[in-house]
Amino acid sequence: MPATAALELVQLSKIFGTTTAVDAINLKIPAGSYCCLLGPSGCGKTSTLRMIAGHEAASSGDIIVGPKNVTDLPPAERNTSMMFQSYALFPHLSVLDNVAFALKMRGVAKAARHTEARRLLELVDMQAYAARLPGQLSGGQQQRVALARALITSPQILLLDEPLSALDPFLRLRMRTELKKLQRELGITFIHVTHSQDEAMALANIVVLMNAGRIEQQGTPRDIFNHPRTEFTAKFIGGHNVIVVADQAFAVRNDRLMLKRPHDVVDGPSIAGTVSEVEYQGTYVRVAIVAEGRGDISAQLTESQFDAANYSVGEAIIATWDAASASPLDS
């Protein structure tokens, strides 16, 4: 089993011309973690990953892998390995030789590198496809081969750049489960870039949400979802309403918002509004509301809750919530 290492970024920046892509970020990832760098396009997450890998030079700051400062080292000397978004398999090489390629570049004898490549193909359940070319594989199979190839150098940290984005939704869910299982079995640090909130929540034990080159918030998925600290976090993570009461902004989860009719007794903070849309979502019903002077909000009701009330578009309602379930947001 490969060794694992912690990762620390110290005042790390990346500047392209007049654009600051990554702005003096500080981050500590414990060894053996599954960390997702999450955020919208242009937030700096991929530039951060590429700097960790050594494929992009840092403009300033330090990258520390375990006890070693690797900021100025070439990629091959960082004890990291990167799996690219496109998988980047060599089309003219067999699956076996694709996986073994890095060891070939290190001068490892053919028999030895093929033995190790077969071991890794077995790990990702691709041993039966060793003789095929990448073009003869499905997207999910290519991903497994790319994973095996990234692992053959026994990295302490595996870097994954949007590894599931090229897959269809069904396969993405399946591969998500397999990635998490693989990380658990290997025990090495995974740093995974994604723009998908669902992906980050499902995979990571540490989520680092980035915005405009900076770290907006970091923590466990549950902590970030249940206690967003800024309006950006609440809106990007989803499932929350941002509601302003007496000049203080609060995040209130959609499933914690309760709906009443104007004549009902309301106990707690509340705002008036009008139902603008009702959407059946299978496991719940989403009721969209135009709140008076506060924009759009929405409530997530169970089927039984909705059936008991049967709200309709155009109906006046009162939205209320338990004050203890609201998260105050930084201004």
Offer a few descriptive terms:
single chain; 331 residues; alpha+beta; Rossmann fold; OB fold (Dihydrolipoamide Acetyltransferase, E2P); 2 domains; 6-stranded mixed β-sheet; 5-stranded antiparallel β-sheet; 28% helix; elongated
Describe this structure in words.
With 331 residues, the chain is α+β, with helices and mostly antiparallel strands. The protein folds into 2 domains: 7-226, 3-Layer(aba) Sandwich (Rossmann fold); 250-328, Beta Barrel (OB fold (Dihydrolipoamide Acetyltransferase, E2P)), CATH 2.40.50. Helix content is 28%, strand content 33%. The chain contains 9 helices and 18 strands. The strands form 4 sheets. A 6-stranded mixed β-sheet has the order 6-7-8-3-9-10, sandwiched between helices. Strands 13-17-14-15-16 form a 5-stranded antiparallel β-sheet. Helix 2 crosses helix 3 and helix 3 packs across helix 4. The longest helix has 18 residues, at 169-186. The protein is elongated, with a radius of gyration of 24 Å. The relative contact order is 0.13.
**Rg measurement, Å:** 24 Å
CATH topology of the largest domain: Rossmann fold
Task: Give the amount of beta strand, in percent.
Answer: 25-35%
Q: Please tell me what the overall shape is.
A: elongated
CATH superfamily of the largest domain: P-loop containing nucleotide triphosphate hydrolases
Strand arrangement across the biggest beta sheet: 6-7-8-3-9-10
How many domain regions? 2
Second CATH tier, the architecture of the largest domain: 3-Layer(aba) Sandwich
Instruction: Give the proportion of residues in helices.
Output: 25-40%
Structural class: alpha+beta
Tell me how many strands there are. Answer: 18
Order of helices and strands: EEEHEEEHHHEHEHEEHHEEEEEEHEE
Rounded average pLDDT: 92
Termini separation comes to 47 Å
Give the oligomer, counting copies of the same chain as homo and different chains as hetero. Answer: single chain
